[in-house]
Specification:
Blueprint (H helix, E strand, L loop, with lengths): L1 H7 L1 H5 L3 E12 L25 E9 L5 E6 L4 H14 L4 E6 L8 H10 L7 E5 L9 H15 L7 H13 L19
Parallel strand pairs: 1-4, 4-5
Antiparallel strand pairs: 1-2, 2-3
Helix pairs in contact: 5-6
Length: 195
């Protein structure tokens, strides 16, 4: 379904009338700096973390045409933060329509979000359209690859993560300065038509 929609709107996507975003949320936790690695078999290495429950929620949207990553932090992932993030995407899209491709999280389908869509699309041709990935299919969303790269960096740089504040800063710097490798969108069947 996503592939067909993108194919039918390819000219508008290519000329910038429609921006296609692969969107997802990421929850960074203090314990993300922990992982497995090579070491002496006789000795276990412990990484000190003050509070494993410290966490930060990020909303991220990957522009599937130009590779830009838009990142915002929120207290939690819910309907109000989803609406706020989508409003931000709308504001920075300079009059272009927006296609959001994301998973079926409850706050993506909530009544509050549907009311927001009705309001923003009212009285005109649609401004924001949403399509969902198949259920339980994170491998279909290219932004999952970027989240994974960022969390891998946290584990590799654990010695610099003396506090959760530093862990968040490292995570954000990695993403804001585009230190990740952009996933090859041609390998994601849903997005292969817009490259």
């Amino acid at each position: 379904m996503i592939n067909n929609w993108l194919k039918s709107h390819q000219p508008e996507i290519q000329n910038g009338q429609i921006r296609v975003f692969a969107l997802d949320e990421c929850h960074t936790r203090a314990g993300d700096i922990c992982g497995y690695g090579w070491g002496d078999r006789q000795q276990r290495l412990e990484v000190k973390v003050d509070n494993y429950r410290d966490s930060q929620t990020y909303f991220g949207a990957l522009d599937c045409l130009n590779g830009d990553l838009i990142l915002q932090s929120y207290q939690s992932a819910n309907s109000s933060s989803t609406i706020e993030f989508v409003k931000h995407l709308h504001d920075i899209s300079a009059g272009a329509k927006i296609l959001l491709v994301w998973d079926g999280a409850s706050y993506h389908r909530s009544q509050a979000f549907r009311d927001f869509l009705t309001q923003i699309n009212q009285g005109q041709d649609w401004q924001i359209h949403c399509l969902r990935f198949a259920p339980y299919a994170p491998a279909e969303n290219p932004i999952e690859n970027i989240w994974g790269q960022a969390k891998q960096v946290l584990r590799q740089m654990h010695q610099f993560c003396r506090s959760f504040k530093l862990t968040k800063k490292l995570f954000e710097l990695f993403l804001r300065y585009r230190l990740f490798t952009l996933p090859d969108l041609s390998t994601y069947s849903a997005f292969s038509n817009i490259i």
